[in-house]
Amino acid sequence: MYDQVEIKPEALKALKQAIGEMKAKHYLDRFLKESSYKIKDIEKAFSIKDYTTLQHLTHTHASSSATFGAIDLQSLCQRIENSCAEGNTYNMQNDIKALKRANQLSCQILEDYY
CA 96, CA 114: separation in Å to the nearest integer? Predict the structure, then answer.
C-alpha cells in the first residue's frame, strides 16, 4: 500500500506557464474536487465487472493525474487500464485499493501546492 507518492512540481510549473496561474489553479481545484468521485466510479465499475467503463475511467484519470504531476497515481491508473485491455483481473482489486490510497495522498499534496 502507498504511504507516500511522487508529485512532479515541474508538471505544475509547465501547466502554469502554458495556460496561466489562474486557469491552472481552476483546473487543479476541479481535479481535486472530482478526483474522489472518479475513484468511487472506478470502484463501482470494478464491483459490477464493467471492465470497459473501468478502462475508460482509469485512462481519463491517468491523463489528468499526469497533467498535475501525480506520477504514482498515473502509473496505477495505467496498470489498471492495461489489465482491463488484457482481460487480466487477477490483482486488480489490490491495485484499486492502492489507487484509492495514492489518490488520497496525491490530492493532499496537490492541495498544498497553491
Answer: 28
Task: Say if residues 73 and 105 touch (Cβ distance below 8 Å).
Answer: no
Q: For the stretch 29-59, what's the b/e string if a residue is b when 16 or more beta carbons lie within 10 angstroms of its beta carbon?
A: eebbeebeebbebbbebbeeeebebbbebbb
Q: Which residue has the cell 497515481?
A: 73
- C-alpha cell of 106? 496525491
3 three-class SS: coil
**What distance in Å separates the CA atoms of residue 66 and residue 107, rounded to the nearest whole number?**
13
Note if the pTM is more than 0.70.
Answer: yes
Give pLDDT < 50 ranges for the chain.
none
